[in-house]
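Late entry, written up from scratch paper. The run itself happened at the end of the previous shift, but nothing got recorded in the book at the time, so transcribing now.
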Amino acid sequence: MSRLFQSIQYGSLSVKNRIVIAPMCQYSANDQGVLSYWHEQQWGNYALSGAGLCIIEATAVQPEGRISFADLGLWNDAQRDQMQQLLKKVRSISPMPFAIQLAHAGRKASTDKPWLGRGQITPEEKHGWQTVSASEVAFNPKDIPPHALSVAELKQVQQDFAQAAIRAVDAGFDLIELHAAHGYLLHQFMSPLANQRQDEYGGEFENRIRMTLETFQAVFAAVPEGYPIGVRLSAQDWFDGGWTVEESVELSKRLQQLGVAYIHVSSGGLHVEQAIQIGANYQVPFAHAVKQAVDIPVIAVGLITEAQQAEQVLQHEQADAIGLARAMLYDPRWPWHAAAELGETLEIAPQYLRCQPHGVKQLFKPFSE
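Output as recorded:
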């Protein structure tokens, strides 16, 4: 049996294979942070993909925590109720577990939809607002500097993460992922490139990771006992003087001690002049470094696009699961094709059983609960 199609445990959640649909912002909510018809078709598409787990896009815990005005939010009960209804629809066609990534964009907030190419929207303009961060250091020199959060304000952010987590559980999500990667707020506190504070949340490593650890603890305390919470990290900033792989490893060890269900390893996003060396498997060594230091699942992501490539990452024990993002957008049936290539049988919706390829051993069987 291939490693890719073996089951895996994320805390208390058992998942049937090791293919993870990584969170991808759709920039398709209305300006109140609520779901649109786009999300209905997208979530349904994810549910029928054959992946083991789907983590939906970065969802803001505060209005000012959205990357753009078209991002999802979970800061009120109306948003929760709408997600609950959509999850019920999705579960009527597939038993695949759904997770949600809770996030705050910090200084990278108040932007336009990325395909419009505009960048930050100023507070005076429609759909714009004042951003916040660890310090008054802008992501892009052309941006308006963020407001540096006071201790009282950052404590409120932590509590808003916790409240959003309660709503996520009530909505019916099977798992929560905290977004501490890609240059967003928690990552901003972690990196000395963005964090120039002089208090207990800035300076040395122990202080810079405090915001992430306390946010995790606030969420952990808010959800039911045993409910799984993962964390996504940027392993390094790809810029001198920034957050490092060694720091990511040490933070992962601290998170394991606090009860994290897994670590999802990406990189970059913190500095506008980052020099990422992109290529196949380019982030896998970072996942491997974390995996060697912890005893919980580690998810690798980043230009892993082929079935044999994903299988080899797992066979070489560089990671425990594979996150797919753009590859799933390009090929929504990627798990089907991977199962065929690796000689595995995949559970799918019974309505699709008749598309079993001719001449291939039994590739499909109907969903089992």
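The two ends are 21 Å apart (CA to CA).
(Scratch paper discarded after transcription.)
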